[in-house]
Each structure stands twice: as structure tokens, then as C-alpha cells.
Amino acid sequence: MHYVTGNVTEAERIPHSAADAARGAALDALPQESIDKGLSKDGFVEEALPRLDAVYRFALRLAGGDADRAEDLVQETFLRAYRSWSSFTRGSNVQAWLFTICRNVFLREQERRARREIAASTLDMNVEAVSEAALTANEAGLDPATRFFDSFIDEEVLAAVDALPDEFRETVVLSDLEGLAYAEVADVLGVPVGTVKSRLYRGRRLLQTRLLDYAREMGYARVRGGSE
Amino acid sequence: MNDHTEHVNCQETVDRLWAYLDGELTPEGAAGVRAHLDACTRCCPCHDFHRAFLEFMKAHARQPLPPGLRRRVFEQLLREERATR
Asked: Quick check: B75 pLDDT over 70?
């Protein structure tokens, strides 16, 4: 179910049906020159539109894997980016700029939804457990590490990412999936670099522990001790 | 190891491991961690596990763009363009 974002009304929205998906796939194959002609803002097509894949991935993780919600976030992000293109400093990091807009759209929309409450005490306990688990992973029989990670399928990893608390999830996604530097992540999130490091390390540890626990549950690995 | 290499112990190595793998240390700091890892069998497994984790995340936690989304975004921008002309 699509929700209405900003000035995009339901009447304007193109239905996301199977037929539309087929049509869209065909239209996607159109030569770039025929697409470029319609937009007048200089450089937007060349600089911003190629970032669509990365913005979608970011939106998808922000939305906890909800594809419909991610599409709405992407549409609203690019609409706002187009409107404010003149304020973008040419030559700076357009991907980080788009991520910032996307996150702002998400947060504004999120305010209208009930936020998940994470009990701080529980979280701290989990992070402490993870630290130990990550450090002892190899001693626990997970060597070589690459073979351990190869046992997962993509959906399991994405589900583990989506289950992270918001502030850890967005930091891990920007750094580990999209490859932004600490300073760039800090710019997008509007926090100091030290906060990025802290969230990133704790988020990764949390993720590692969840993967370790999952591997143990599924019999991918026999872990002596574990994270308890 | 050259004169500019920092000398770091196991705890310092573990503390700096993520920043090292992310390429966020100074050249001297990175050289110090690297030198320690070359010589320490205790820290190497942790380094290998973290590195495998990061490589795995980059390789597997990605998803393709849904069919038609590029077109839908573009059409929306065209509507915006026409509305503001």
C-alpha cells in the first residue's frame, strides 16, 4: 500500500501493478538521450539520476525492507532534490546530499508513525555480548571466517540489518553498504564523527552477534560458548 | 616498520581495528596496526573475521532497483517541470 508523501497525490501516482512493472521495465530500456530532453535543470540528469540505485538501497534499509515504502521515499527524495537542485554545490558529494534528503524525508514520515522503542538496558546488554562473540568467533570454530559468512543467504543478512535499531542501521548501511567515509556519514546524519564511529562499531557488533546466533540456531556453525 | 610507524599493543590494535579496516587511520597509525597484525597470532583471527564480515556485507546486502522505478521517478520530475514552467 502506497502512502502519500509531500505534494505527490494519489491521483498523480502511477499505479504499481504487474502491468505497470512490465511497462516500466520496457521504458527503462529507452536510450538515455530520449529521457534527458524533458528536464531543464542543468546537470541533474547526469549527476543525480545515476544515484537512484544507491538511494533506493538506502531507502529500502531505512524502511526496514518495505519495498513500497522505499519507492515512495525515493520518489519524494528525487522530487525534493530536483526542486532544490540550485542549492546543491556542484562538485560536492551528490550521493551524500541525496542520502541526507532521503533521510530527512524518512524521519519526517516516521514522526507520523509509532516509533519502535528500544529499551536502552537491553541494547547495552546485547552490545556487550556481541563484543565477546566477535572476538572469539574464530576460537569458537568458525575458521575460516569467510566460510562462515558464505553460509548465509542474502535475505537472512538483510533481515538482520533491518532488525538493527534505527541509528545503528542507518550508520551501518551508509558505511558498509554504500561505502561512505566516516566524515560523509557524519554529514548525512548531522552528528559528530565520533558518534558515527561509536554507532558503527556497536551496530556491526550487534549484527555480528545476530548472525552468529542465527548460524547456531540453523546449524550453520557449532559455536562453543556463544553470546550468552 | 619505519621510523613513523606507531607501536601498538593488542588492546590498541583491537580498539583501532574497525578504523584500520575502514581506511580511517593515519598512515602511521595504519602502519602500526599492520605491523602488530603481522606479528600477533591472537589479533589476526579477529582482524580476519571483521574483514570477512565487511567484504560479505558489501557483496551480499544489496538489492536491485525494482522494474520501472527509474521511469516513475523520471515521469514525476517531468510533471514537476511542466507544473513550474
From this structure: yes
Q: Is A4 left (phi over 0), alpha (psi -120 to 50) or beta?
A: beta
CB-based contact A103:A111 (threshold 8 Å): no
Q: Which residue of B55, B68, B79 is in closest CB contact with A12?
A: B79
With beta carbons less than 8 A apart as the criterion, state whether B42 and B10 touch: yes
Helix (H, G, I), strand (E, B) or coil at A178: coil
Query: What is the per-residue pLDDT across A61-108, written as a single tens digit (0 to 9) for each?
Result: 999 889 999 999 999 999 999 999 999 988 889 999 999 999 999 998
Would you say residue A42 has pLDDT above 90?
Answer: no
Query: Angle at CA A185, nearest 5°, toward A61 and A208?
Result: 55
Nearest 10 degrees: Cα torsion B5, B7, B8, B13: 20
Whether A15 shows a pLDDT value over 50: the answer reads no
**pLDDT (tens digit per residue) in A141-200:** 555 555 667 777 777 888 889 999 988 999 999 999 899 999 999 999 999 999 999 999
Q: Which residues of A touch B51 (CB under 8 A)?
A: 145
What is the rounded CA–CA span in Å between residue B36 and residue B15?
13
Chain B positions in Cβ-Cβ contact with residue A142 (cut-off 8 Å): 49
Beta bridge partners of A5: A8
Q: What is the 3-state secondary structure (H, E, C) of A89-109?
A: CCCCCHHHHHHHHHHHHHHHH
CA–CA separation, A96 vs A47, rounded Å? 12
Q: Taking CB atoms and an 8 Å limit, are B71 and A137 in contact across chains?
A: no
In the block, which residue shows the cell 535499531?
Answer: A165
